[in-house]
Backbone:
């Protein structure tokens, strides 16, 4: 219940643009010695997810949406400085996302958490052409590509990017992980486009990447339209599919 109260207070402060009230909620958690990663995953992420649901349903106006996402991004930047850094894994990760502010914010949280978890993380954001992403992956000899916070309109480009990476074979060891955004609302979409792993939120993404570093889709599993495999425990997505992503 305490968590729900804090989220409600934080949500109210964000949509009203009250910087002091939003700071007060986060400061309470910091003073209570709550780790920065928990503030990001247990307060900021669910609040952002709730904001996005309301906005997509036309239950939040543009003003409140802008207030909330811009103010939360400022506080997420501050949390990054508080994250405890674990031992380096010597694995390079490129993080990309959809082009909108909320998608970039959620992907930024993921990038910050991945870096704290020991990955050498490069945050590209959204709006970059597939050719440039593919070239960058090859140049940096990336171990993992994370697509977090994709929108329905960007899914076809994500699918083309994954197909291109498999076709050219420039990064044979590359593991592709997707999550958040449209992947949480279109059941089976992550599998259809050929992702090796998927997660519904930043915390789960860190977990599955740590638990299954060697998992890769086989070519037949990447074929769109084939019978889907049972989804591994802990990686289920919402059953609501969006026709625009089909």
Residues:
């Amino acid at each position: 219940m305490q968590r729900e109260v804090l989220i409600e207070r934080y949500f109210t402060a964000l949509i009203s643009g009250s910087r002091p009230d939003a700071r007060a909620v986060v400061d309470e958690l910091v003073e209570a010695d709550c780790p920065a990663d928990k503030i990001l995953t247990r307060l900021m992420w669910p609040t952002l997810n709730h904001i996005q649901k309301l906005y997509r349903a036309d239950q939040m106006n543009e003003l409140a949406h802008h207030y909330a996402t811009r103010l939360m991004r400022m506080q997420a930047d501050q949390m990054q400085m508080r994250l405890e850094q674990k031992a380096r894994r010597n694995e390079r990760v490129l993080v990309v996302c959809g082009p909108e502010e909320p998608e970039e914010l959620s992907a930024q949280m993921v990038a910050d958490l991945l870096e704290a978890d020991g990955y050498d993380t490069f945050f590209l954001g959204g709006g970059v052409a597939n050719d440039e992403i593919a070239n960058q992956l090859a140049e940096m000899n990336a171990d993992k590509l994370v697509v977090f916070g994709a929108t329905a309109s960007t899914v076809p480009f994500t699918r083309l990017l994954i197909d291109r990476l498999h076709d050219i074979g420039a990064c044979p060891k590359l593991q592709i992980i997707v999550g958040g955004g449209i992947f949480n609302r279109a059941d089976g979409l992550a599998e259809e486009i050929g992702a090796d792993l998927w997660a519904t939120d930043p915390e789960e993404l860190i977990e599955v990447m740590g638990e299954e570093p060697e998992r890769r889709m086989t070519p037949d599993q990447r074929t769109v339209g084939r019978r889907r495999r049972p989804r591994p425990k802990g990686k289920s997505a919402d059953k609501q599919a969006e026709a625009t992503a089909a």
In short: The two ends are 38 Å apart (CA to CA). The beta strands are 92-96, 120-125, 144-148, 175-179, 197-199.
